[in-house]
């Protein structure tokens, strides 16, 4: 029987009984059919991963008792995604897959051709947390508050930011990544693409490097996941020794 793995907000330490998060009691008791004394794995993004026991389980409330640390806290490479919001199912999928790919932060950015005018940060944060639980990473990516494209670029800290160039005149992503290391960001535009004015303004930023994502036009969700996979393969932790 597999051991449930859950993210909690509380500090993790031996013999410290801690509360579960909303919904975890129902999940453990009603969905997973667990009971008091059963093992769980817990992580909080700070203290590594812990073996714990269910100390109390009452309807939707659960208490855990951590017993021993299984893995020390580790941080993956600082990879970031700036993404023009897309329709709900595609946006949910991007957040899930970006979490699995080890992205540290995801920020929605509004552009002229966005078809979505608002973002449900609570839902996206839940999707990121559940994906982190499933893929066994030790942290959950930040889902940052949405910003206008230009405001997001103004707030950027100067780390290299790669932007997919649908004009087909940019060098390939592997060429642009040569010699670069995290922190790195990827900017993905809306389904209709950036306007010429937006793309020109983006390319004038000294930290931005246009990069081609192949000879075909990609959907926004494809571009996001494909681009992040290349970043991880060439500059992230995929090549790191196990």
How would you describe the overall organization of this protein?
The protein is α/β, with parallel strands linked by helices. The protein folds into two domains: 5-71, Ribosomal Protein L25, Chain P; 79-235, SPOUT methyltransferase, trefoil knot domain (Alpha/beta knot, 3-Layer(aba) Sandwich), CATH 3.40.1280. Helix content is 30%, strand content 24%. It has helices spanning 24-31, 88-100, 121-135, 149-155, 173-177, 196-203, 220-235, and strands at residues 5-7, 18-19, 39-43, 49-58, 61-71, 79-83, 105-110, 142-143, 147-148, 161-164, 184-188, 208-211. Strands 6, 7, 8, 9, 10, 11 and 12 form a seven-stranded parallel beta sheet that branches. Strands 1-3-4-5-2 form a five-stranded mixed beta sheet. Helix 2 packs parallel to helix 7. The longest helix has 16 residues, at 220-235. The chain is elongated and about 60 Å long. The model has no long low-confidence stretch (mean pLDDT 93). One of its GO terms (molecular function) is rRNA (uridine-N3-)-methyltransferase activity.
CATH topology of the largest domain: Alpha/beta knot
Quickly count the domains. Answer: 2
Low-confidence stretches: none
Average pLDDT value?
Answer: 93
Run of helices and strands:
EEHEEEEHEHEEHEHEHEH
Which architecture name of the largest domain does CATH use?
A: 3-Layer(aba) Sandwich
**Large-scale geometry:** elongated
Major beta-sheet overview = 7 strands, parallel
Supply the number of helical segments: 7
Oligomer: single chain
Determine the N-to-C terminus distance.
26 Å
Measured as a percent range, the helix fraction is 25-40%
Radius of gyration: 20 Å
The CATH superfamily of the largest domain is identified as SPOUT methyltransferase, trefoil knot domain
């Amino acid at each position: 029987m597999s051991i449930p793995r859950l993210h909690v907000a509380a500090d993790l330490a031996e013999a410290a009984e801690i509360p579960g998060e909303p919904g975890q009691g129902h999940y453990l008791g009603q969905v997973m059919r667990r009971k008091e004394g059963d093992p769980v794995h817990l992580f909080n993004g700070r203290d590594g991963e812990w073996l714990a026991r269910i100390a109390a389980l009452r309807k939707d409330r659960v208490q855990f008792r951590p017993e021993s640390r299984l893995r020390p806290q580790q941080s993956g490479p600082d990879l970031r995604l700036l993404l023009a919001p897309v329709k709900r199912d595609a946006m949910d999928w991007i957040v899930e897959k970006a979490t699995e790919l080890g992205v540290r932060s995801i920020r929605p950015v509004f552009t002229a051709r966005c078809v979505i005018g608002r973002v449900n940060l609570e839902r996206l944060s839940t999707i990121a947390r559940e994906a982190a639980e499933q893929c066994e990473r030790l942290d959950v990516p930040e889902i940052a508050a949405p910003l206008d494209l230009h405001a997001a670029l103004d707030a950027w800290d100067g780390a290299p930011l790669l932007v997919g160039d649908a004009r087909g005149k940019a060098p390939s992503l592997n060429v642009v990544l040569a010699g670069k290391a995290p922190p790195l960001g990827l900017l993905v535009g809306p389904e209709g693409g950036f306007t010429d004015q937006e793309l020109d303004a983006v390319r004038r930023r000294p930290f931005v490097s246009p990069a081609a994502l192949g000879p075909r036009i990609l959907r926004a969700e494809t571009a996001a996941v494909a681009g992040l996979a290349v970043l991880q393969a060439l500059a992230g932790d995929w090549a790191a020794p196990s």
